[in-house]
Amino acid sequence: MKSTREKITLNFRGIRYKTYASTLQAFPGTKLSRLTGPQEASTEFDYDPNTGEFFFDRDTRVFEEVLNYCRTKHLHCPQYICKSVFEEELAFWEISGAALAPCCWQRLSDVESQQEDLALWDDSKDADDQGLLAQVGRGNNSCRARWQPKIWTLFEKPFSSFSAKILAAISLVFNIGICILFIKKADVEIEFFVFGDAYHYNSTATYLSEIHKQFPYLLPLEFFCVLWFLFEFSVRLMFCPNKKKFLTSPLNIADFLSLFPIFIELCSHGQAWLGFVRALYILKLLKILKLIEIPLMFQVLSYTSRSVFREIFIFMIIFTFESLFFGILMFYTEVFYPVPESYFESISSCIWWAVITLTTVGYGDMYPITEFSQVIAACAALCGVLTIVIPIPIFLIKFKGYYDAAVIKERRKRKMEQAAMLSS
């Protein structure tokens, strides 16, 4: 080994560092420690005997922290450096990342959590669609292959062109119109069926036909809207690049189900109880999400909910236990101290009261009378507040992580699109 007071020169891309051999010998077994050995000029290192320097083509920021670690026995991470680069440099110098100081450990943990959110975030939907469209275009020169990307973009990307915006506006008018017709028709049927003279008719079909006579515009308008939905759904299904993904999409399933209410009503010979199927028209309002460009927020909520599913499950178990515990305790308290005006007549009613109290809703339809039961109610209210408050920070932290990841991916995608437009 070299003398502890001997100086060793290290050259990093022209930047020279000179230190004592004793400093490099602070951690035996590491690469820096081997620089002071008798075989330092061997092929393991790039050693220049003329200048007496060891040359390294490595990151100087991390090496400065590694060298400082040899001096002070405290390893820190540079402020602006990627976590993967830092870990790669530590691996090169054969230093364990467990030696990292606590002040930098938290910062790297936050970075690692953000990188995990970025890795889990699925932004391949649009890329997959475009890739499938490109493959179809290259493999087929038919008319359908040439028009498929244009028509698919026209119907599926509302902000891709002026024509797509017009088509999206027309679709929005039909979506809102079908919901207005559903509300109007439901009001008319309730007025006839509940407050009117429906009982005078021989059958429900006769009474519904009477409604159609007095309001003849309802059925044609509804049928016209459904025809538009059928046309739109058929075109999108015909020109979609991935039919399996298309048919399993929740929005597309809602579109498909909304085609049937009017046909069910017509084929059922006017059965009034089948009118509830028209409530599927309300699902058409979900199409508005594409027009105001907020599906990203719902994707963030979806990823957040899936990431905190374990915590939500534990919370539901605790909440169920509290409901049963306070409900049964309140029931037996009212039984042992009976009062004439007590609202608690069964365990199920007590559990209902416990659920309402724990969720801090407090309808006031049931409340304790005796002093001891009021103490139990106060404990239930406090436990409910604590139980609900504790999971909220976990959800917010996860939501912020996925939201930041989504914003980063969106910005990156827009930059790539702008670069592609400029290059073309």
What's the layout of helices and strands?
Elements: E1 7-12, E2 15-20, H1 21-24, H2 31-34, E3 46-48, E4 53-56, H3 60-72, H4 83-92, H5 102-120, H6 124-139, H7 143-156, H8 162-193, H9 204-214, H10 218-239, H11 243-247, H12 250-257, H13 261-267, H14 288-291, H15 295-307, H16 309-336, H17 347-358, H18 371-389, H19 391-423
Parallel strand pairs: 1-4
Antiparallel strand pairs: 1-2, 3-4
Characterise this structure.
With 424 residues, this protein is mainly alpha-helical. It has helices spanning 21-24, 31-34, 60-72, 83-92, 102-120, 124-139, 143-156, 162-193, 204-214, 218-239, 243-247, 250-257, 261-267, 288-291, 295-307, 309-336, 347-358, 371-389, 391-423, and strands at residues 7-12, 15-20, 46-48, 53-56. A 4-stranded mixed beta sheet has the order 2-1-4-3. The chain starts with 6 loop residues before the first strand and ends with a helix. Residues 198-203 have low confidence and may be disordered.
By DSSP (H or I, 4+ residues per run), the number of helices equals: 19
The CA-CA distance between the termini, in Å, is 61 Å
**Mean of the pLDDT scores?**
77
**Rounded Rg:** 35 Å
Overview features:
single chain; about 425 residues; mainly alpha; four-stranded mixed beta sheet; about 65% helix
Quick overview of this protein structure:
By secondary structure, the protein is mostly helical. It is built from 19 helices and four strands.
